[in-house]
Design brief:
The protein has 3 helices and 2 strands, in the order E-H-H-E-H. The protein has helices spanning 8-19, 38-48, 84-96, and strands spanning 2-3, 54-55. The longest helix is centred in the C-terminal third of the chain and has 13 residues, at 84-96.
């Protein structure tokens, strides 16, 4: 199961997992599974029966971004504290034009033969 698999970071992780041979990647969509609700989390686990869970579902938006926000608002200001490390890495990468691997080799080959 890959939560957030359709998001910014998750789409890159999904591509890497597929490139490493992972054939079944369950990505719970927000419209089907509201992962802020325990019942939806249970339903996602029952539907997918995962061997591995990679949790990337989150929002790294600035703490004082207007709600609803536009794409350009996502890089204005310091990220909300619970997402600050991810948000800062993403911001630095965008500001510097970094195109390398931000994931720091998180995949363990035995999970994706």
């Amino acid at each position: 199961m890959l939560t957030g698999g359709a998001g910014f970071l998750g789409s890159f992780v999904t591509a890497k997992l597929k490139a490493r041979g992972c054939k079944e990647i369950f990505i719970p969509k927000e419209q089907d599974y509201d992962l802020t609700k325990p019942a939806a989390i249970e339903a996602a686990f029952k539907a997918s029966k995962p061997d591995v869970v990679i949790h990337l579902a989150a929002s790294a938006y600035p703490k004082f971004a207007p709600i609803p926000f536009k794409e350009e608002d996502l890089r204005n200001g310091y990220p909300e504290e619970t997402n600050a490390p991810y948000g800062l890495v993403e911001l630095i990468a965008r500001l510097t034009g970094f195109k390398g691997n931000l994931t720091c080799r998180p995949f363990v080959p035995q999970y994706c033969p």
